[in-house]
Amino acid sequence: MSNKLITLSFFTLIFNFPLSAQIKLIDGLNKMIIPIDSNQNLGYSISKESLFNILDGKKIIAIGEATHGSRDFVDLRLSLVKNLVKNLNYKLIVVECDYSSTLALNEYICYEKGSMKTALKSMGFWMFNNNDFIPTVEWLKAYNKTKPENEKVKFYGCDMQAPIIIDDIIAGKTTLNKPLSSDGIESLKILNNFSKTKFSKSDLDKLYKLKFELNLQIQEVSAPEMIINGLKTIIQRIDHKIIGPGKDQNEFRDKAMASNFERIYKQAGECKTILFAHNSHIGKVRNQPGLKVSLGGELNKKYGVSYYALGTTFYRGSVSAVDRDTKKFEVFYVEQNNKKFIEYTFNKLEKNNFLLDFKSTIQNSDIDFWLKKPVSVRNIGAEFSLSKSDDENTSRSIVPCETYDGMIFLKNTNALNL
């Protein structure tokens, strides 16, 4: 064989090896994925047998979302909720929203009190206060209607960014056994100023005084559980504000969310629970540069194998978000054709929509190896921009099997109907 032929054969082998490995990976994934069927009227469906096999022994399933502004993730969550509630006896839903801000919705879905419109507005965030979330609310209300108290599905929030109890105390709708001082009321108004990130010594003194008053309220006064929980989130809000924007503030928020989740979970009797939050929160490893703490990581440390983190992502579609440049709501179209992204590989599979349980892939060395390597993944929050520089804000590098226990992929998505 001539040197030229040997060289040609060598380079042919080198160039074809990655392609061969990719084909082998795709073939293996096609055998492992669990198809998710979609129907325009009935939403998404996955067999209850598959869910039972995956979630056997799991008490907390966290369902993430790759973007807050995609209708299909809302529809997908509803389909999963129906399956988990009816077939696997899940009785508690905890969401990425403030505790006091979800009390009105819990009253509506459990006891048909108040109005849905008011309850959704109380939640304060457009990712819940929208037309596409209404079917979830109505299904939960219908399910609870004929159920005794111990079988109703309860609905609470574990966040601490904008508790509505602050507004209610200022307006006199929530009365405390020990009225706050005038400085305490002024501090509540400071907390409600979301644009304020720097504080004078006078502001800080008032915030610390409010924190002291609230702690006394919690320790010395017998108050309903819902009031105590709300006051604790105000204290968290104070600490969150004082820390100021940055890594420490983001980590504090996730720690607070985990603490609130644990309190709600315990108060509910540690029943089977569904958690709704962004992918960046539910992951067992934080998927943002420089951050080591995540809500999912804290829950995984606390509950171990009882916790299941289910990330979600998509290949292409429209997304509702606040334009990072104009600060106005816009609908963006995105498509992921970059080979370094997990969505690019998922799009090569036979099924448009599917669930991949990572534990089941251990038996396939090619997939197992792939899931243990860093890969890029979508990470779109409340804001987005089509500028190239926005890639840093809307994607993250993760090691899939360290971050999630499984992932759901949707080929196409549609914008949230705000």
- Low-confidence runs of at least 5 consecutive residues: 13-17
Rg, Cα atoms, Å: 23 Å
Structural class: alpha/beta
User: What is the percent of helical residues?
Assistant: 40-55%
User: Averaging pLDDT over every residue, what do you get?
Assistant: 91
Query: Describe the biggest sheet?
Result: 10 strands, mixed
Q: Count of DSSP E strands?
A: 14
Shape: globular
Q: What is the overall number of helices?
A: 17
- Measured by DSSP, the beta-strand proportion falls in 15-25%
Describe the structure.
The protein is of the alpha/beta class and 418 residues long. It has 17 helices and 14 strands. Strand 2 and strand 3 form a beta hairpin.
Short description:
By secondary structure, this protein is α/β, with parallel strands linked by helices. The chain contains 17 helices and 14 strands. α8 crosses α9.
Which key phrases capture this entry?
single chain, 418 residues, alpha/beta, ten-stranded mixed β-sheet
Ordered list of secondary-structure elements with their pairings:
Layout: H1 3-32, E1 34-35, E2 37-39, E3 43-45, H2 48-55, E4 60-63, H3 71-88, E5 92-98, H4 99-111, H5 116-122, H6 134-145, E6 154-159, H7 165-171, H8 182-191, H9 201-220, H10 225-243, H11 247-267, E7 273-276, H12 279-282, H13 295-303, E8 307-323, E9 329-335, H14 342-346, E10 353-357, H15 365-371, E11 375-378, E12 383-384, H16 391-394, E13 395-398, H17 400-403, E14 406-413
Parallel strand pairs: 4-7, 4-8, 5-6, 5-7, 8-12, 8-14
Antiparallel strand pairs: 1-10, 2-3, 8-9, 10-14, 11-13
Helix pairs in contact: 4-5, 4-6, 7-8, 8-9, 9-10, 10-11, 11-13
